[in-house]
Amino acid sequence: MTSLRLRRLVTKRAADRCEFCLIHQDDVPQHHEMDHLVARKHGGRTVAENLALTCLPCNRHKGSDQTAMDPETQTLVPLFNPRIHAWREHFELDGARIRGLTPTGRATANLLQFNFPVRVDIRRWLIVKGRYPQRVQLSGWRHLSHALTPIPVCISFQTLTSPSGRPSRRQDAPPRPMRPSVWNRERAAPDRLP
Ligand SMILES: [Zn+2]
Predict the structure, then answer these.
(1) Which residues pair with residue 92 across a beta bridge?
(2) How far does residue 177's CA lie from ligand 1's centre (Å)?
(3) Which are the contacts of 67, defined by CB distance < 8 A and separation ≥ 6?
(4) Domain parsing of the chain, residue ranges
(5) Whole-number average pLDDT of the chain
(6) What is the pTM of this model?
(7) Residue 185 pairs with which residues in a beta bridge?
(8) Cα(53) to centroid(ligand 1), Å
(9) Which contiguous run of DSSP H or E holds residue 100?
(10) What's the first-to-final CA gap in the chain, in angstroms?
């Protein structure tokens, strides 16, 4: 399979959402990436079964790791693997925060810094705009596509990870100025969650 066909398959399978933190790739300035769940340096192959659509912050924090410490039990556990695990069995949404429900969920949320303040603020703003699932909407997300509106968010990876990046507390404005070229294109509505 060509790399382009593989990317299309992985993107469509994930409904354009990061398979870890669920942010839609139209709501970040950088295209989501294809993460090798088992890194190539560990023998992982570039095949659909070993790939996950991943936003830049999740991918950078995960790196080539396959395990991480559960902050609650202080034990080393496998990271969440969207090809094996169901998102809802390992995580839940508490407002804009993603809470780990299992050792794997907690370790993944911690390692990938799901709840870094700026990322939580972005999700809170996207929830207001109907671009990110709320807890009660998880099962009915596919029916919300008619209500989705373009979101002018432009966030750099540095902003998402730097402690000096101060999140905006306003819910009626994005944390960063709009980049029109990104947002003028038509968005694919999410049709399912993992
Ligand atoms: Zn992510």
Answers:
(1) 99
(2) 21
(3) 76, 77, 78, 79, 107
(4) 3-183
(5) 79
(6) 0.73
(7) none
(8) 9
(9) strand 97-100
(10) 23
